[in-house]
Amino acid sequence: MLIPFENLPDDSRIWIYPSNRKLNDAEVAEIETKLQEFLAQWTAHGADLEAGFEIKYNRFIIIGLNQENASASGCSIDASVHFIQQLEKEYETDFLDKMNVTFYTGQFLTHKPLTEFKTMAKAKSISKNTIVFNNLINTKAEYIESWEVPAEESWHSRFF
Questions:
Q1: Where are any strands of DSSP class E within the chain?
Q2: Is the Cβ–Cβ distance between 128 and 158 less than 8 Å?
Q3: How many CB atoms lie within 10 A of CB 74?
Q4: How crowded is residue 7: how many other Cβ atoms within 10 Å of its Cβ?
Q5: Are residues 103 and 117 in contact, defined by beta-carbon separation less than 8 angstroms?
Q6: Residue 48: which pLDDT band, with cuts at 50, 70 and 90?
Q7: Are 51 and 4 in contact (CB under 8 A)?
Q8: 37 closest CA partner among 62, 76, 1, 75
Q9: pLDDT for position 77
Q10: Please, where are the H alpha helices in 42-131?
Q11: CA 20 to 30 Å from 130, out of 95, 100, 113, 149?
């Protein structure tokens, strides 16, 4: 069951899928429609899952699931990953590679392989104050409070 993302409770489970490139507005509109269709029929063991989504900065797909009524099962999580894989093929982008980092350079978003991010940290091209996206968060509350944070407040701090 699709609900507005903002109506999900703060303890909702969150999955963040960062794109390796900025999506254009037409792609975002198409992906939003596909997400609406997928989440409207997403179930776990026959029970409707209460879920919502948002797409941020034309780069991140964020899916939230209210687990109070029904939790995602292995099969329903597999279905969502398969859905994201279909988007990857259709839009020739990568949403599932966790070995990349997205961060701000000035007012612009930059997406780099983790190895390059580490090299930039050692070279002091970026600092512990660089705003990074911590895509490992698990709840909507963490998403609101701790998604865009200085690197020193995230798992990225180990590189400084």
A1: 13-18, 43-44, 47-48, 50-56, 60-66, 100-105, 108-113, 131-133, 148-150
A2: no
A3: 8
A4: 11
A5: yes
A6: confident
A7: no
A8: 1
A9: 86
A10: 74-91, 114-122
A11: 95
Between CA 51 and CA 71 the distance in angstroms is 10
pLDDT of residue 30: 98
DSSP 70-86: -PPPHHHHHHHHHHHHH
Among candidate residues 69, 13, 62, 64, the one with its CA nearest the CA of residue 46 = 69
Reply yes or no on whether the pLDDT at 70 is more than 80: no
- Average pLDDT of the chain? 94
Phi, psi of 137 (to 5 degrees): -65, 160
- Calculate mean pLDDT across residues 61-70: 91
Q: Is 59 exposed, middle or buried (0-12, 13-18, 19+ CB in 10 A)?
A: buried
The total number of residues written for the chain in this structure = 160
Annotated domain spans of the chain: 5-91, 100-159
Report the candidate in 103, 99, 97 with the shortest Cα–Cα distance to residue 151: 103
Q: Which of 32, 33, 18, 7 is nearest to 134 (CA)?
A: 18
Q: Which residue has the tokens 């992906």?
A: 31
Chain centre to alpha carbon of residue 7: 18
pTM: 0.93
